[in-house]
Amino acid sequence: MRIDGHAACNGEYVVSDQREWRAARVPPAPTGCIVTCPGHVPDSTAMSDPTRAVWRDTVIAVSDRVQVVDGYTYFPLDAVDATHLRPSAHTTVCSWKGTASYYDVVVGDQQNANAAWSYVAPKPEAAHIAGWIAFWRGVEIRR
What pLDDT, in 10s, does the model give residues 60-97? Predict the structure, then answer.
C-alpha cells in the first residue's frame, strides 16, 4: 500500500478525512471520508466546508460533495460553472477508469488547455465518477 494519493487494492484502503491520510481496513469508508481505491466505491459525503477549484482567482467549481480518486478531486457536474469550460478534442485512457474527455478552462481571454477532465462512460470500477469533473495544470483545489 502506498499513502501518496494512490492505493494498491488488496483489501486495504487509503482513507482521507480531508485533513490527513491514514491506512485503514474499513469497507465501506466511514461517513465523511473518501476512499481512493480502484474497484471500491467511495462514499461521497458532505464535507463541513465547501471545496473549490480556482484558476486565476476565479472559482470554477464549488461543492461540499467531492470525491478524491487517484489523488485528484472530482466535483459533481452541477457544482461546476460550465461557462469556464470549453470541450477539447484531447482524450486519455486509464487502465481502470476508461477514457477521459478533456476541457480547456477559460477565464476571460486566458485559456488553460486540457486542465479539466471527466469520464463520461467509465469502466464499471469507476462508475461512481461518471460525469464528475476533475482539474489539474494550475487549477488550485482549496479546502
Answer: 999 999 999 999 999 999 999 999 999 999 999 999 99
CATH of domain 46-142: 2.170.150.40
Max CA pair span of the chain: 48
Going from N- to C-terminal start, the domains of the chain cover: 46-142
CA distances in angstroms from 94 to 9, 67, 140, listed in the order given: 16, 17, 23
User: Around Cβ 19, how many Cβ atoms within 10 Å?
Assistant: 6
pLDDT at 12 over 70: no
User: Which grid coordinates are listed for 1?
Assistant: 500500500
Burial of 39 (0-12, 13-18, 19+ CB in 10 A): exposed
Whole-prediction pTM value? 0.70
Amino acid at 133: I
